[in-house]
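Notes to self, J domain-containing protein:
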Amino acid sequence: MAPPAAMRWPLPSVLVLCLLITPSVAIYCGEDDCYDLLGVSQNANASEIKKSYYKLSLKYHPDKNPDPESRKLFVKIANAYEILKDEATREQYDYAIAHPEEVFYNTARYYQSYYAHKTDPRAVLVGLILVLSAFQYLNQCTRYNQAIDMVKKTPAYKNRLRALELERSGGTVSRKKSNKMDKKVEEELSNELELQINGAEKPSVWGLIGVRFMLLPYTLIKFMIWHICWFWRYKVKQAPYSWEDASYLTQRSLGVPLHTWRNIDELAKEDLIQRQLWIKSNRESYLAEKRKESKRRR
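result:
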């Protein structure tokens, strides 16, 4: 016969009641006391706990004592040792003894200690960096191959291949043959061209997150040395800028991406450097000239 509706307890309420009735200490060593199982006091140090455990192991280990009851006792002893040998779990157990009324808190700490993920955070970080680096490299390869395939379909690329073929053959390629290039020859000529596409550079391991992370200390030291040398050379000694440093200042003052700056004609680049655009007045005059030229073209 089922109990009246008023006497029925919902499942969550039953679980809560069980937790309240069962002492939180019992989740560690059951009804026994972990210290009593090992025969030590609560003030025992790690060495005393370890010594007592080995002594009891010799007495109750199944290989030493075939009695079934000793096997059960040894399991309890081993469990008590696992709890007390670790400083964190022992501290939790001592707290549960001192504060048995904090049932939910003690229970939560126990399950977090035993069932939480115990992977070293450093290993997780290294694994994450490796995964991100792998995805980054695959993305670079995909973008580069797609860009190369698109460029190979353009007439300009085919004309460059044809010019290179004529240069290699000394201009002896027949018209009939020149209408359609052999795939093997086309592949060889394509490798010689070494296409450079802005925004889809050839994949390199030096740009990966993992490699940069490993080289971060070296990069920071190099960056600091560079700044110190720069300050000493151009601020203290007031030396004139070298061509490389003047090129860097010009590129930065114009806000031009590095790969775009590298593709600028050398004569145009030299003209820009001679203008000393890193000086504010020179840069403003140059930009004003460019705006005037743009209006004239319109």
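- The chain is about 70% helix and 0% strand.
- The CA atoms of residues 152 and 158 lie 7 Å apart.
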